[in-house]
Design goal:
3 domains, 24 helices, 29 strands, Beta-lactamase, alpha+beta, Penicillin-binding protein 2a (Domain 2), single chain, five-stranded antiparallel beta sheet, eight-stranded mixed beta sheet
Length: about 725
């Protein structure tokens, strides 16, 4: 019977299947299922092979390249700091640092780093710091962090700083145990030295490793974990120009992390959502408008010839295996290569050309930091440091013509070279921290004190402006005055007798200035103090300046919940009470009297020296300044500072004694300038709890005026 006629074929198959024994039916069923599964498995394997070979080839090859490429930072020499004659205050010297190339196994890296640190004799705290650097190195995933810090995320291995300034024994140990620590390597770098030592410590400052808080604040400026940054002084204030710009190098490493070879990498700072493009030696930037939705990265192309640029955009929905955007550039030049080096967002996508990892050689070497030329006279700085000796206090020497700081000494001091030693001398560091006089504190800038009678110059200017002081005016001092139900005693209990404006300054008569203050009131004194530079930072190019305090009625009510009394005004008029000033402000005031009423900007960087024609003049009568000049001159010749009446130079000065109730012993001030007829130097001497100014501070000032370096400077 022909079963293929009249639709009998199906019936035949069914009859055949029913005719099979029961066991054979199950066997047939299993074989059929197995064949289907085998076909599916083979199809899956084939698809996977095609996917790996074609679609994901570049991705996995890039991942493998990342495991074979490490990025090494090339240190930049820090800019030197010189005095006004070109003598070094801060210089570099060669050191050798130990680094460690990270792997993809963070746990193994931590173990290796701990062992390496132990071999180098590092303590627990230092070891923890090294481990934290490794953890930090693996945490940068965002495109923004990679672009700003020129990090490659988790693409390639990174170099981790282990220890700076290795000694010969440590270098030998690393080389001898290379098989045990294949990822460790030694790099030549730069240490910092301070030839002036303690003499210029508070001016120059010192370096230490960047803190976590500083890194969070400065990371976008290119700072990285492990960087050495200025912690005080000029090193801190000018860190951004002194530090230079480090270079970077890509090196090939084997499976154990040992360096095989390498080539240079060009670091660059680019905007958010941008990309770095390098054409030969030129660096350009693609902005957000050129590169949108920059999530997949940009492929690298190496093309010759002339063509127009094209762009293709693929959304994830269209093709999840393709990069979302592609920008192809073709060179229009002389047939040379047009190389585009792009920083990627997704970890594992390495720069490549036709599937080959980029290890080419467009090089920008590390850029040295800028040289900082200062106004400091190193000879004068050293002489004043010796004269101040063991006194707790500070001295500032300034050119009253332009505000150039010639010397700035704060005692006690410290040796900044202590911090540049390997690991820093822990015993020396602990001694500094435990010193009750705080050697790291720059008393000229970072602290403010009650000014005492030196502030009478401000009261004088305010009184002259308000008409309370006139050329023919005088005051009778009988040793005390009565205000309300209180008596206020002059520092000279027997009294000064009748004093005119010049003698009021020369003899520092409290009674005269109390009467002036009571007449003009607190607001007039506060206004003049603010106009002469008190109550706010001067803007000197040193960090952490304390602006001081010029109190008023509102301040006292807010601070003490009390109203302002007449006694507060009287205290203020002679420089006592709530007033707080720093030494730089005092130098500005002294210079103002010396130069005829001009406000000079205090500075240490030579580039900040102003044109004299651009200086601001205080809006007070010239006769007021002339009275102060005469009063300060007579203070030297026949007043409270006769110890400074030197035979080789005419000086003008003003003593000051400031109460310090917590310690009972008063502060000592002495401000002076010279030569009197053509001032070239203004000097401020302050002794913390140093007794009466006419005894100690003025005597030290006389020694400074007599020293060889000051004489040499004035002779120029």
């Amino acid at each position: 019977m022909n079963y293929y006629k009249k639709g009998y074929a199906k019936d035949y198959e069914e009859d055949f299947y029913r005719s099979l024994p029961h066991a054979e039916k199950h066997t047939f069923h299993r074989e059929w299922i197995s064949m289907v599964l085998l076909v599916l498995v083979l199809a899956g394997l084939f698809y996977g092979l095609v996917r790996l070979s074609i679609f994901k080839y570049s991705f996995y090859q890039a991942q493998a390249a990342g495991n074979r490429i490490a990025k090494i930072t090339l240190p930049a020499p820090r800019g030197e700091i010189h005095d006004r004659k070109g003598r070094p205050l801060a210089i570099n010297h060669a050191v050798y640092d130990c680094f460690f190339i990270s792997s993809t196994n963070i746990d193994q890296d931590v173990s290796d780093l701990t062992a390496l640190a132990s071999m180098l004799g590092m303590g627990a705290e230092q070891t923890d710091t090294v481990v934290s650097r490794r953890i930090e190195a693996g945490s940068a995933r965002s495109l923004e962090s990679e672009l700003w810090a020129t990090e490659w995320g988790e693409l390639g291995a990174k170099s981790i700083l282990v220890k700076r300034d290795l000694n010969q024994v440590e270098v030998a140990a690393i080389l001898e145990r290379k098989l045990e620590f294949p990822r460790a390597y030694i790099e030549r770098s730069f240490g910092r030295s301070y030839p002036a030592g303690e003499s210029a410590a508070h001016i120059v400052g010192y370096l230490q490793e960047i803190s976590r808080a500083e890194l969070d604040e400065w990371q976008r400026l290119g700072y990285r974990m492990g960087d050495m940054v200025g912690k005080s002084g000029l090193e801190r204030h000018y860190d951004n120009i002194l530090r230079g710009r480090p270079g970077e190098q890509l090196v090939a490493v084997d499976a154990r992390g040992q360096i095989l070879g390498g080539a240079q990498f060009v670091p660059a700072v680019v905007p958010n959502n941008g990309a770095v493009v390098v054409r030969g030696d030129e660096v350009a930037i693609l902005n957000e408008g050129d590169v949108t939705e920059f999530s997949g990265g940009i492929r690298i192309s190496l093309l010759n010839g002339t063509a127009t640029a094209t762009r293709s955009v693929y959304s994830p929905g269209e093709n999840s295996e393709r990069i979302e955007q592609e920008i192809l550039f073709r060179d229009t030049g002389n047939g040379g290569e047009f190389r585009n080096f792009i920083v990627f967002r997704r970890p594992g996508e390495a720069a490549q050309i036709d599937g080959i990892p980029v290890m080419r050689n467009p090089v920008i070497s590390p850029v040295s930091g800028s040289l900082l030329r200062t106004t400091i006279d190193l000879d004068m700085q050293r002489d004043i440091n010796v004269i101040l000796g063991n006194h707790v206090g500070s001295v500032v020497a300034m050119d009253p013509r332009n505000g150039s700081i010639l010397a700035l000494v704060s005692e006690p001091g410290f040796d900044p070279n202590l911090f540049s030693a390997s690991g820093a001398d822990r015993s020396g560091w602990n001694a500094i921290l435990s010193d009750p006089h705080f050697p790291l504190l720059n008393r000229a800038v970072q602290n403010a004190y009650v000014p005492g009678s030196t502030f009478k110059l401000v009261t004088f200017l305010a009184g002259y402006e308000k008409g309370s002081i006139t050329p023919g005016r005088s005051w009778l001092c009988q040793g005390r005055i009565e205000i309300g139900d209180r008596y206020f005693n002059c520092w000279k209990r027997s009294g000064h007798g009748r004093v005119d404006p010049v003698r009021a300054v020369a003899d520092s008569c409290d009674v005269a200035f109390w009467l002036i203050g009571a007449e003009i009131g607190q607001k007039a004194i506060t206004d003049m103090a603010l106009r002469t530079g008190f109550g706010a930072p001067t803007g000197i190019d040193l960090p952490f300046e304390k602006g001081g305090l010029i109190p008023d009625e509102e301040w006292k009510l807010n601070r003490w919940k009390e109203r302002w009394y007449t006694g507060d005004t009287l205290n203020m008029s002679i420089g006592q009470g709530f007033l707080q000033v720093n030494l730089i402000q005092q130098a500005v005031l002294t210079s103002l009297v010396a130069n005829g009423g001009y406000l000079v900007p205090p500075h240490i960087n030579q580039l900040l020296t102003p044109d004299p024609s651009m200086l601001e003049k205080l809006n007070v009568p010239d006769s007021a300044i002339n009275f102060l000049q005469r009063g300060m001159r007579e203070c030297i010749t026949s007043g409270t500072a006769r110890v400074c009446n030197l035979n080789w130079i005419e000086l003008a000065g003003k003593t000051g004694t400031a109460d310090d109730p917590p310690r009972k012993e008063p502060h000592s001030w002495f401000i002076s300038y010279g030569p009197y007829s053509s001032p070239k130097l203004a000097l401020v001497v302050f002794l913390e709890n140093g007794a009466h100014g006419d005894i100690v501070a003025s005597a030290l000032s006389a020694q400074i005026w007599n020293c060889e370096s000051v004489r040499a400077y004035l002779a120029e």
